Amino acid sequence: MNDTTDQTAATGDGLDVEAAGETARAVVDNVRRVIVGNEAVIEHLVTALLAGGHVLLEDVPGVGKTMLARSVAASFDCSFNRVQFTPDLLPADITGSNVYNQKDGDFEFRPGPVFANVVLGDEINRAPPKTQAALLEAMEEAQVSVDGRTRAVPDPFTVIATQNSVERERTYELPAAELDRFMLKLHLGYPSEEEETTVIDRAVGGHAIDDIEPVARAEDLRAVRATTARVEVSDAVQSYVTRLASYTREHAQLGASPRGSIELVRAAQGRALLDSRSYVVPDDVQAAAPVVFPHRMRAEPGGADAAELVERALESVPVEK
Question: What domains appear along the chain, each with residue ranges and CATH number?
């Protein structure tokens, strides 16, 4: 293949690859105006959006998880809702509920915050499992069921959740079934001294998030996602992903699921599009695997952790041409 394969004609189902890539890079650059450092994390988050995936951000408090999520959402001119997860939050507080209208003498549905293009679930592990599970149907099926009636969430739809990695005694562990619904799990980490100085300087007198302007519309995101889905994934690349997943299953108590393999392919498609490329290469898979596989795995007691096992898989599994 060569660069001429990127000259895909624009269709009603999406954009040409170059235009889609330019839109994606514009979002990345826009987020960088707010978030200092963490360039790889920003790219991972944007590629997940391109591929229609959901993202879990886990780290200690105060490193910018919520700000990153807000910056990405603000880069698109689309609906955005934030849910602060707390121990007393109920499923209906997320999905909505039927409320009796005395004037009409009938029940009417009042949609919850899940009915938005981008939903930020802040500190999702502070709510009990039943409430966390209220997001599962929306994340997997792009719909919610309330009182026997199913309603579609807006299109496009993405959940960006943050998770507190400390104070474990005051939080609830996310079940494996829910973790598997997140395409990526990302960690920001502490900034360097230089980066932290820049953060402080930007925060004096205000914050860059207050001035951020959208660089794309909801319909642009729909079009870019349609283009991402058309990015070519060769048989050789698909086989490579399968062999990586098999390695994790052979060396862990719980390996990457088949859904994980699918999500890895989709994330790789998003990375290819970010480079305005109409086909996936092994480098795309290798860049995405460390943030797609580990949270779906459970390592053997006393052995290497999930992240180390994924690194070993990337070192051990050959790329076949």
Answer: 14-230 (3.40.50.300), 231-321 (1.10.8.80)
